[in-house]
Amino acid sequence: MGKLDLLIKSCRNGEIELLTVLEEIVRQEGYVSFEKLDKVSRGLGMPLAKLYGVASFYAFLPTKKCGQHIIRVCGSPSCYLNKSFTLLDFLKKELGVKLGDTTTDGKFTLEKASCLGQCDKAPSMMVDGKVYTNLTEEKIRQILAGLD
Predict the structure, then answer these.
(1) Spatial separation of the C-alpha atoms in residues 65 and 5, rounded to whole Å
(2) What is the strand order of the sheet 69-74 is part of?
(3) 41 is a domain residue
(4) CATH number assigned to the domain comprising residue 114
(5) String of b and e for 105-121 (b: at least 16 CB within 10 Å)?
(6) Under a CB-based contact definition with an 8 Å cutoff, are residues 91 and 71 in contact?
């Protein structure tokens, strides 16, 4: 029995522990696949539609395979006023992807975040959980180069 099976089996209150189960799937697989959602649905006795609703609501629970590095550009009003939209356009061009897509080499996934909580240091983005602030195109180039 795998770690996910044990976690599902140990759940006493499915709704409260659901995020823990889904986060474990992301740790193991990198994303929450339909097959894993179906397994959790059967294991917890919860409707599949409800599980998909939860998984698709949270940005940290991707429902499709992502790149090795996930880039999330902040789209909060503060970041927007500080030109985050131009940096998002720059990243789309630099990576050759549309928002929500992954590069053909599987290295980067580009997403937009609602707010990263760095309004006083806007614009900001998060790469693999690390937040970068006061961004410029040059700073983004350096960050991307450091990920190679």
Answers:
(1) 21
(2) 108-113, 69-74, 125-127, 130-132
(3) yes
(4) 3.40.30.10
(5) eeebbbbbbeebebbeb
(6) yes
Give me 127's structure tokens. Answer: 């790469």
Q: Is the pLDDT of residue 92 over 90?
A: yes
Q: Do 86 and 118 fall into the same domain?
A: yes
Tens of pLDDT, residues 94-133: 999 999 999 999 999 999 998 999 999 999 999 998 999 9
64 part of a folded domain: no
CA atoms within 13 A on the CB side of 11: 23
For tokens 């053909």, what's the residue? 104
How far is residue 59 from each of residues 43, 53, 63, 99, measured CA to CA in Å?
A: 24, 12, 9, 13
Contact 102, 66 (CB under 8 A): yes
First to last CA, the chain: 37
Residue linked to tokens 């029995």? 1
For residue 88, count CB atoms less than 10 angstroms from its CB and return exposed for 0-12, middle for 13-18, buried for 19 or more: buried
Determine the 3-state secondary structure of 38 from DSSP.
helix
Determine the structural domain holding residue 47 and report its residue range: 3-57
Number of compact structural domains in the chain? 2
